[in-house]
Amino acid sequence: MGIADPQGEIAVQLHGTGEPVDVTQSHTLAAVAPFTVALPYSRAMELANDRPALHFRERAGRQRVLGKLGLRLANAIALGDRRIGCFIVHSRQNYCLSAPRLWARYLHLGYQRWRWPPDVPVSAGDVHAMAIFFICPRPVALVSVADGPGGNLFPMNLMGPLGGDLFGFALNRARPAASMVASVGRLALCSVPMEQAALARRLGRNHWRERIDWNELGFPLGRSPEFGFPVPAFALRVREAQVLETREIGSHRLFLARILRDECWNGGLQFCTVHGIYAGLKARAG
């Protein structure tokens, strides 16, 4: 989907810690298996009697709740005077489809996992959680990381702000791209215009590569202003970040970083991904 930045379709609210809190712009995925969400950890969460939950709600129309994810605290990461809580999803409710149609879709997803096993083994519950988490449109960025003349450029959408200048993102810990980001400790996040969605998908193969040849990319490059990393000239927005902390959480490595510079380069709609179940709901609504 092509959506303006920031997306205004879906609100993500934190319930169970007092009054509902809008965390649309302050949460991210920390791992796919087990399905783990990271968000700022507050004193209210410690004092809450009920387990927290994320509600995914339409902003327009009837403002329906389309899905819920129940959370259980796994651990909290201290960053100075701030803490980031990592919450494992323990319950899921998806309201995008009627129960019979939803379970038919889940059976199809199960068949797909059996027929074409993913490189990250995931449980059925984690797959169902993914369908809810991606009700909220997730922007795709091209990550540029450079180490001398070498470097890499690859797409990522498991990412999000965590309050203030803090930013979190998760990479499959078994792939070379994650190791390079951890080694360099700096990166440029480049928002992708919808017109370049197919190109961004093709660059997904770079997750498995140690280094790339910048000259073989086939499109014009600029330089990020802070680090001088090669970045696509077509980028809508370029954010440069310094990694502060990394944690291995299940299938992924969670990176916590500070945004040092944020520039808008071009106008247009950004490439975002949503789950097919939510996309089908939107199509039926016209």
What descriptors fit this protein?
single chain; 286 residues; alpha+beta; Pnp Oxidase, Chain A; 2 domains; seven-stranded antiparallel β-sheet; 6 helices; 19 strands; 42% strand
Structural notes for this entry:
The protein is an alpha+beta fold and 286 residues long. It has two domains: 2-137 and 276-285, Roll (Pnp Oxidase, Chain A), CATH 2.30.110; 138-273, Pnp Oxidase, Chain A. The protein contains six helices and 19 strands. The chain has helices at residues 43-47, 99-115, 124-133, 176-184, 197-202, 276-285, and strands at residues 2-3, 10-15, 21-22, 28-31, 36-40, 53-58, 65-79, 82-94, 138-139, 141-147, 150-156, 159-161, 166-172, 186-191, 221-223, 230-232, 237-249, 252-264, 270-273. A seven-stranded antiparallel beta sheet has the order 3-2-6-7-8-5-4. It has a seven-stranded antiparallel beta sheet with strand order 11-10-14-17-18-13-12, with helices on one face. A hairpin with a 4-residue loop joins strand 12 and strand 13.
Characterize the biggest β-sheet.
7 strands, antiparallel
Number of discrete helical segments: 6
Order of helices and strands: EEEEEHEEEHHEEEEEHEHEEEEEH
How do the strands line up in the largest sheet?
A: 3-2-6-7-8-5-4
| Helical coverage, percent range | 10-25%
Chain-averaged pLDDT: 93
- Say what oligomer this is: single chain
- Mind telling me the CATH class of the largest domain? Mainly Beta
Q: Structural class of the helices, strands and pairings?
A: alpha+beta
Low-confidence stretches: none
Measured by DSSP, the beta-strand proportion falls in: 35-45%
Radius of gyration: 19 Å
Roughly how many Å apart are the termini? 15 Å
Per CATH, the architecture of the largest domain is Roll
